[in-house]
Amino acid sequence: MHTFEVKEDFLLDGKPYKIMSGAIHYFRIRPEEWYHSLYNLKALGFNTVETYIPWNLHEQEEGKFDFTEHLDIQKFVYLAQDLGLFVILRPSPYICAEWEFGGLPAWLLNDLDMRNRSSDPLFIEKVANYYEKLFQQISPLQVDQGGPVIMMQLENEYGSYGEDKEYLLAMYNLMRKNQVNVPLFTSDGAWDEAQTSGMFLEKDILSTGNFGSKAKENFTQLRNLHQRHGKKWPLMCMEFWDGWFNRWSEEIIKRDPEELADAVGEVLELGSINLYMFHGGTNFGFMNGCSARGRKDLPQITSYDYDALLDEQGNPTEKFFAVQRKVHALFPDIKQSEPLRKSVLEPAVAQLKEKVSLFSVVELISQHKSSKYPENMEKLNQNYGYVLYRAKISKHSDEEFIRVIDASDRVHVFLNQAKIATQYRDEIGEKIFCHPNEARNQLDILVENMGRVNYGHKLLADTQRKGIRTGVMADLHFICEWDQYNIDFSKLDDIDYKQPWIEGTPAFYRYEFAVENPADTFIDLQKFGKGVVMINGFNLGRFWNVGPTLSLYVPASVLKTGANEIIVFETEGEWASELNFDKQPKYKEIQEG
């Protein structure tokens, strides 16, 4: 067992301790890859790993908790301990992290009277139920109980959101109630307003800063703030941004390795550091987050490579070696070692075996609900992915128009199974002209939730309720009597590929390819439009030909020796008879402006 304290220095077993930490999110990499990433962090010469804990994965349905397999936080932490690493946990209800809804469960949105991330008793009750189960898992991992956890976070960048100190007190009381004994901290931007709003002096909670450069300037601001409040706390950058995340249709963001190493060295000369990220990983499934810029929501891509010290696979980049050299120059006695590298498959091709339109099989792979008016995704218990809305409309003239009122995020509109419009962002709500050719016509609207906002004021916006929120109008009246189909990607084995494939409609494409020795690879999706890819039942995440990425990372652990099944769900009607697997990711050159 150890002791860990926050005095004028961080003290491990009573001796000064410089925290040299890197962020690895266990939920963004497969469990089979945890050792590889943690080993490489130790090889860098660092002594601590930091991770967020996403509420929306551990309690995907209210009252149903999961801490198994890829969500086995105990296994991840003990593996870090076995490698000689200490651990910082950030279990706050909200994590940001460019993660869907900042880690908040989407089912919270069903309570229209509750204010999330506040002292609202309704919200505190939800957090309390989650914390009771979560801390049964993580409280035994603390250093005073023989584990490696030295600190935990109270809240995450709250100073960039609110100033509700009653909320912070409630979080503090819940953590102490659940036997959290290690020091707690807050992390906010280093400037005055963010720190003052987010810090919690009432309980002497350490405040740390988040920044990616200018350590002297930022640490001076942080030190001055501490001193004004009579604190002599150690300085720590809890998120030193060594790269950045990426959004659809925008250029990949890169940072010079040597410049980064110098900036990291500046932090280490003055205080402690947590590299955000050390290994970014992947937003598998539907878990990518979304930026909020003005009135627009800008979803982030599937890859969370982050231009970090390890690439998306977990292999060392030039940044790794530049920072490793800087650490050695500053602390020559720290043990370092060669990092591990993963192999990749030789280029391969998978052949198309079958294809079928979504319209032909939707009843087989969905949960169905009828209602007078269309309901949003959360009310339909479809928190992520897609919903197909269907209604019948009568013909009144040769040319008519409909309007989808108040929907998120992207809609495909079909009349009698022929596409008549795709709308996104500001286009939703505009008139869609059509030419009905039957007395009664089938209207289908496929709505995709592209990811909820993870940062800022829009956490409370009604736009974070996905699907159709208000209704659909024909001429000047709302259409009634809707069938709604929640597409369930766990039921893809039920697809009947003998049913028709309809050109230009959303469809499933099934491919097969054989593997002798599973290894990492990348699926080239340049010939496809938009959708998601499943390999052997595992959802790799979204693709979109607007770039900047035109491929998806495939971890070796989702492949198997022998035949492998790939199912591509594609929504734009763009497909290919072959799927190519390559050694490296594919990128699209984006023209700015």
From TrEMBL:
Reaction catalysis annotation: Hydrolysis of terminal non-reducing beta-D-galactose residues in beta-D-galactosides
Start and end residues of each Beta-galactosidase 1-like first all-beta domain: 374-487
EC top class named in words: hydrolase
GO biological process: carbohydrate metabolic process
Active site, per annotation: E157 (proton donor), E239 (nucleophile)
EC number: 3.2.1.23
Protein's UniProt keywords contain Hydrolase: yes
A Pfam match: Glyco_hydro_35
Full protein name: Beta-galactosidase
Entry's family note: Belongs to the glycosyl hydrolase 35 family.
Any one GO molecular function term: beta-galactosidase activity
Keyword annotations: Glycosidase, Hydrolase
InterPro entries attached to this UniProt entry: B-gal_1-like, BetaGal1-like_ABD1, BetaGal_gal-bd, Galactose-bd-like_sf, GH, Gly_Hdrlase_35_cat, Glyco_hydro_35_CS, Glycoside_Hdrlase_35
Domain (Beta-galactosidase galactose-binding) ranges: 506-564
Glycoside hydrolase 35 catalytic domain mapped to chain residues: 10-328
SUPFAM superfamilies xref list: (Trans)glycosidases, Galactose-binding domain-like
TM helices/strands, residue ranges: none
